[in-house]
């Protein structure tokens, strides 16, 4: 990689690593099943020793939010929430233009809003894959969802109807707790599905004395190619320079 960029090792400030899962220790995560063998391993020192470079690690949804803050629709907004529709359902918060991680490093874990009995109703793309496989698309992957004909597939509209209540629960929880100017629908969510969810969003906004409160704007993420990796590459800059 260095040779391809005509760069020297001394030119590298550090390495950012994006990991799926809840942060447990400083750079150890409790990962979902496909990455279970990465769980509870202190990754930064391990990778740093192999590369001979300092390493920072964060959750992939929060690094994607950072990419959107610097290069995407969030670059002109100080406070916004990013919902990462990946195999799971997480996100990240940006406050005052900086990543907000919370005390334990897990701010933006929107799946925590749902009990185990509601997990299959989240707008997680892993749930959509299972739904579409049951409709006959047995070998479907996340990459296959970026198909121009997606909205014509049997079961897609049915899935949108099914997850809209959970989507609205998350949106209103974000409004109540974080009060951002913007909520971004991102991750691997196809733009067509993002727009459908935005169109179906219902804010819990009862008028008081005939006046409604301000609510955030909803937008589709602009950074769609590896946002987690782009955001991870920004972490060393934020931790040392910015």
UniProtKB/TrEMBL annotation:
GO molecular function terms noted in the UniProt entry: N-acylmannosamine kinase activity
SUPFAM superfamilies on file: Actin-like ATPase domain
Any one Gene Ontology BP term: N-acetylneuraminate catabolic process
CDD domains reported in the protein's UniProt record: ASKHA_ATPase_ROK
Gene3D superfamilies the record matches: 3.30.420.40
Protein name: ROK family protein
Lineage, uppermost ranks: Bacteria, Pseudomonadati, Pseudomonadota, Alphaproteobacteria, Hyphomicrobiales
């Amino acid at each position: 990689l260095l040779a391809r960029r005509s760069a020297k090792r001394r030119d590298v400030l550090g390495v950012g690593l994006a990991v799926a899962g809840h942060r447990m220790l400083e750079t150890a995560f409790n990962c979902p099943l496909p990455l279970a063998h990465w769980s509870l391993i202190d990754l930064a020192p391990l990778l740093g020793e192999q590369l001979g470079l300092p390493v920072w690690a964060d959750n992939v949804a929060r690094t994607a939010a950072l990419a959107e803050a610097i290069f995407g629709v969030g670059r002109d907004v100080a406070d916004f929430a990013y919902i990462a529709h990946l195999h799971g359902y997480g996100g990240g918060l940006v406050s005052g233009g900086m990543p907000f991680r919370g005390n334990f490093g897990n701010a933006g874990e929107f799946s925590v809003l749902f009990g185990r009995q509601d997990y299959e109703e989240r707008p997680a793309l892993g749930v959509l894959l299972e739904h579409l496989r049951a409709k006959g698309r047995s070998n479907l992957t996340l990459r296959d969802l970026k198909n121009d004909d997606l909205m014509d597939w049997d079961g897609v509209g049915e899935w949108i109807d099914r997850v809209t209540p959970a989507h609205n629960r998350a949106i209103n929880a974000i409004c109540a707790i974080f009060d951002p100017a913007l909520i971004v629908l991102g991750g691997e969510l196809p733009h067509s599905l993002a727009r459908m969810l935005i169109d179906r969003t219902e804010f819990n906004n009862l008028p008081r004395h005939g006046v409604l409160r301000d609510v955030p704007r909803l937008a589709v993420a602009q950074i769609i190619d590896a946002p987690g990796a782009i955001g991870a590459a920004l972490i060393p800059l934020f931790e040392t320079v910015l």
